[in-house]
Amino acid sequence: NETVLTDESAKIGISLLVTYADGEPCGAARKALAKIIQRSKSDPPHVQVPDGSLRATDPCSVVPRKLATSMLGQGYKTDATLLYNCTARSQDLDKGQIEVGFGFSYPPLESGESKRVKLTGSVRAIQRYYTPNVESCEIEWEHKKFSGPTARDGETVKVEFSNLGGKGDALDACRKAKQAAKAVLGELPGR
Question: How far is CA 40 from CA 9, 35, 36, 51, in A?
Fold first, then answer.
């Protein structure tokens, strides 16, 4: 696994994992990364980003300060965890974290203990948790509708509240995740 830091201030980079049975994979990973970086500098790929798209939105910018402060405490920190994911973490291990992620692959799927919930009059979401006695729950909805179940032309937003060191359960986390999802929804482009 080799990583090249492409933006020091945002701590964002490109990682490449190369595995094969015979030989030393790190050299191959470094060589491939060098070519990727060279191409991204000389002939960068261009993506058409329509107005209101989440592709042009920093997920950390849609975590409302007032909400994060009330749930996580004054000293919370936000970090981009992937290109389209952000985590707001409490300094107090008993308060948990809020994660916001944008997806571009498929519509929200029902799994685990999931149910449909209403965020606003027009926005319906899937709420799900996997373990009833663990304080973790996510809410996911379509920001831009997919044209079909296998189409890759839509956008989703997922908001998760988790507090693995807390004393609550999944239902406690679902209440907090829904509250966070409603607040994040109001910060998104096109709303």
Answer: 19, 8, 6, 24
